[in-house]
Amino acid sequence: MAQMSRKSSVLWKELTAEDLRLRAAGDAIVILPIASMEQHGPHLPTGVDTILCEAVCKAGAERVEGVNVVVAPTLWCGMAEHHMAFGGTFTFDIPLYRAVLLAFLKSLERHEFRRVLIVNGHGGNMAAMAAFLPDFARETALKINATTYFELAQPGMRPFMEDQESVMHACEVETSMMMAIAPETVKLDRLSEAFGMKVTDPRAVFRPVVARYRSFRDMSETGVLGDARRASAEKGRKFLEACTVALADALRDPEMW
Predict the structure, then answer these.
(1) Averaged over 92-120, what is the pLDDT?
(2) Residue 30: pLDDT above 90?
(3) pLDDT in tens, 40-78
(4) Of 50, 60, 104, 223, which cross-links 41 as Cys (Cβ 3.0–4.6 Å)?
(5) Residue 239 lies in a domain
């Protein structure tokens, strides 16, 4: 009996080199997920940002019809100095982070890809990415766009949040999404402890008019910003759907390129 054909994966790590050469020849958009490996309170694993960012990128790429998209391996380390006091965290410094990202982009360029969408899944990476983009535009011939998935999807996610304005940290949103995507990693018996410095909008904390460095330890005894006790798998599926739709819409947008 003839073997049934199956749809090709969107994930770089599941494709052959030949597959990827064909994707490059077809002017594929490469999604480059960037994330972090850091503490996420008493109830969530350190890989939250990496797990969620890759899941959103995969779902968004699979949602797009008629657009050639491939999702590169997720860069699991980012800018996370502010979480180091809790343990369980890896961090780059600025020069090393810039060098690693540039090396990834140069590899894509050498393989004759031309379009890259960097999708960030960690708040601590945002300022660095904004600073790097002019350099990357100058130092490569790639067309590079960048976004943070939970900011891109903010309008679609907001209706399902009970007491916060946007994604915080190990909060209602991240915990719900982990319950939907990787439920076996969530310590449900620790949810009663999973709340910390409760504010409705973290931008008031992390983007003040007058800024100084603050460790997360100075802001939250638990390592949580927000209230994960609000979380549920049902909400998580809704948050994931909102992120998937927002990313797919961005990939379809001809103005981006």
Answers:
(1) 98
(2) yes
(3) 999 999 999 999 999 999 999 999 988 999 999 999 999
(4) 223
(5) yes
Token pair 């976004």 is found at: 147
Which CATH number is 111's domain given? 3.40.50.10310
Asked whether residue 6 is domain-assigned, the answer is: no
Token match 């990827």: residue? 20
Domain span holding position 85: 12-252
Q: Are residues 97 and 79 in contact, defined by beta-carbon separation less than 8 angstroms?
A: yes
Q: How far apart are CA 170 and CA 222, in angstroms?
A: 10
Q: pLDDT tens, 185-221?
A: 999 999 999 998 755 555 666 566 667 787 888 888 9
Alpha-carbon span 121 to 51, nearest angstrom: 9
SS (H, E, C) the chain: CCCCCCCCCCEHHHCCHHHHHHHHHCCCEEEEEECCCCCECCCECCCHHHHHHHHHHHHHHHHCCCCCEEECCCECCCCCHHHHHHCCCCCCCHHHHHHHHHHHHHHHHHCCCCEEEEEECCHHHHHHHHHHHHHHHHHCCCEEEEEEHHHHCHHHHHHHCCCCCCCCECCHHHHHHHHHHCHHHCCHHHHHHCEECCCCCCHHHHCCCCCCCCCHHHCCCCCCEEEHHHCCHHHHHHHHHHHHHHHHHHHHCHHHC
